[in-house]
Amino acid sequence: MKHLRIGELATQSNTPIETIRYYEKIGLLEKPQRTASGYRMYYNEYIEGLKFIKRAKHVGFSIKEIQELLYLRHEKHSKTCRDVKEFASKKLIDIEGKISELTKIKAALQNIVNSCDGGSNSADHCNILNALDSCKELE
Predict the structure, then answer these.
(1) Cβ-based neighbour number of residue 57 at 10 Å
(2) What's the chain's average pLDDT?
(3) For residue 42, which phi and psi values (nearest 5 degrees)?
(4) Which of 9, 88, 118, 136 is the most exposed place for a label (fewest CB within 10 A)?
């Protein structure tokens, strides 16, 4: 089995070396064996693991959640699709809540921006600054 050095793993997985080391440190990636001279020895499984982590991050999972996903992936012979779906569904509900909150924030900010004529007068009377100074609705 051919092993890769960290630079080769970084290139093949399109992941910075510092990120690989960080993932090892926090336990997302298993610490690799080392050669007698201290070089890390990675195998192709590490590439797939890094790609899995990147995909999970891309769809919004946090590092802690990715740790749980990796556990589910590692224990998939003893876990069910229901377990995985319940986990992912909780994340989806969380994301929907964030979208709802961001929609409210956008509407509030849009109202503030629309209240300002954007003229060349002094900002002493700027509706945007006044709203941020005093609007209780934004708290």
Answers:
(1) 13
(2) 91
(3) -105, 155
(4) 136
Are residues 53 and 7 part of one domain? yes
Place of tokens 């609007």: 135
Structural domain including 31 reads: 1-61
CA distance 84 to 30: 22
pTM above 0.90, yes or no: no
Angle at 43 between CA 13 and CA 84, to 5 degrees: 70
Q: Is the pLDDT of residue 1 over 70?
A: no
Count up the domains in the chain and report the number. Answer: 2
> Highest mean pLDDT range out of 43-47, 86-90, 118-122?
86-90
Burial (Cβ within 10 Å: 0-12, 13-18, ≥19) of residue 29: buried
Query: How many other C-beta atoms can be found within 10 angstroms of the C-beta atom of residue 30?
Result: 14
Q: Under a CB-based contact definition with an 8 Å cutoff, are residues 9 and 20 in contact?
A: yes
